[in-house]
Amino acid sequence: MTSQFHAASGPPAQGPGAVDLSGRTALVTGGGSGIGRATAEALAAAGALVHVADRDADAAKAVAAATGGVAHVVDLADAEAVGALPGAVDILVNNAGLQHVAPIEDFPADRFELIQKVMLTAPFLLMRHCLPHMYAGGWGRLVNVSSMHGLRASAFKSAYVAAKHGLEGLSKVAALEGAPHGVTSNCVNPGYVRTPLVEGQIAAQAAAHGIPSDEVVADVLLDRSAIKRLIEPEEVAAVCVWLCGPHTSYITGASLPVDGGWGAR
Ligand code: NAD
C-alpha cells in the first residue's frame, strides 16, 4: 500500500534530518482540514500510509485521494465508532478539535461534554486501541496536537482549555508507559494557525468588535506573540513529522511550543 503512495507522490525526501516513514502506517484524526490535513500530507510525503479520519466525508476522501491514503468517516464523539478505526498503526496523530467561546455561566453543558469527548476521550480511546500494535512492534509515535491553551488559559474557552490541559496529562502518562516499548508521546503546542477554525474566530471577533480582520489578527490574536503573523498549518505538520523521525526518539513526555514567542513573555 505504501508503494501506492510512492506512485502518486514520489519518493520521500533525502538528506540529513530527512524523515523516511516508508513501511509505516499513520492515523490522523481531523485529517480533512487545517493542521490535520497538512500533517496527513507531510506524513504521506515521508512515505507513510495515512488513514485520514474525519466526520467531514468529502474532506476525508479528498485528503485520502491526494495522499494515496484511506478515508474513514467518523464522529469521534462516538466511542463505538472510534473503536472501529484501524488499530494497527505505528503513528497516531490526535488532532481533531473544535472550539466554543462563552463565559462559564453561559457555557452549554452539552457543548462542554462534546469537546471533552472529541479532544480528550477520543485520544485516550485511540491510544488504548493503537498501543498494543505499537508495543508488539517495539516502535510507535503518539503525536498529540495540543495548543498553547494546553499550557495557558484564556477567558471564555473553558471547555477547550480544560480538554487541552487534560490531553497534556494523558500524553505524559502515555510517555511513561510507552518508554519501555519504544513508543514516544508528545504534545505539539501551536499559537494561532491559519486554518478554518481560526478564520471563523477572526470573522466573529471582527464583527463583535467592529474592527477589520487584520486588526483582530494583530491586536487580539497576536497580542502575546513576538512574531506577528499566523502560523501556517505546514509549519505545525513539520514538527509532527519531525517527532516521527530518526533523531527524536529521546524526546518524550514533552510539550513543544510552536508559538512565535508567546510563552516567552
Ligand atoms: P480545523 O477546523 O481546520 O480542522 C479540524 C478538523 O477536525 C475538521 O476537519 C473537523 O471536521 C474535524 N472534527 C471536528 N470534530 C470532529 C468529530 N467529532 N469527529 C471527527 N472529526 C472532527 O481545525 P485546526 O485549526 O486544523 O485544528 C486542529 C487541531 O489543532 C485542534 O485540536 C485544535 O485545537 C488545534 N489547534 C489549532 C490552532 C489554530 O490556531 N488553528 C492552534 C492550536 C491548536
Automatic annotation (TrEMBL):
InterPro entries: 3-OHbutyrate_DH, NAD(P)-bd_dom_sf, Sc_DH/Rdtase_CS, SDR, SDR_fam. Keywords: Oxidoreductase. GO terms for molecular function: 3-hydroxybutyrate dehydrogenase activity. The lineage of its organism: Bacteria, Bacillati, Actinomycetota, Actinomycetes, Kitasatosporales. Its EC number is 1.1.1.30. Residues 7-18 have a biased composition (Low complexity). Belongs to the short-chain dehydrogenases/reductases (SDR) family. Residues 1-21 are annotated as: Disordered. It is an enzyme of class 1 (oxidoreductase). It comes from Streptomyces cyaneofuscatus. The keyword Oxidoreductase applies. This is 3-hydroxybutyrate dehydrogenase.
